[in-house]
Each structure stands twice: as C-alpha cells, then as structure tokens.
User: Fold this.
Amino acid sequence: MPSNDRAAPRELQQQPARDSDEQQQQQRGGAWGQVEAGGSYSAGRNYQDNVRRYLERADVQADAEAARPRSESEARELEQAEREGRSHSKGER
Assistant:
C-alpha cells in the first residue's frame, strides 16, 4: 500500500437545517407538552391494542406448536441462546 506524505483534507458536510421542537410537534399533529418520544403513550397504546387483537383472533395454541423446536439439538441451541442473552441483561440471570 503506497504511503502518502500528506493525507487529503476531509470535506465535512453541513447538517440540514432542523425545524424547532414546536414546528416538529405541529407537523406530527401532537400537542406541545405531551410525552411523545421513544416510549410514547400512543406507541404503548398501539402495542397493547395489537396484542389484545392478536389474542382475540389468533390461534395461539397453533402458533405455539409451530414455534416448538423441531429437534433436541435445536432445543439445546435455543436454551443456550437464551442463557447467553440473559447473561447480558440487567434483570434476571
């Protein structure tokens, strides 16, 4: 790999202008002051509604059967993956 005595200067790109927080709220249709962020109330409501509808309409038993491991080796793999995931969690271990 050839070495350069001087690296080419990097060109930095400007970030596009951002709307103010109030403008963003108005564009989304939200009222200023409502909690609507990563853990928004509307997202939580939508999730709960979707879970309720799924449980009302779906064949949960058939879905559970379809998700069952197909072999003993697959079951061991899933258990190992679960242990690995739990080892990284802050909660239960």
The mean pLDDT is 77. The two ends are 48 Å apart (CA to CA). Residues 41-57 form the longest helix (17 residues).
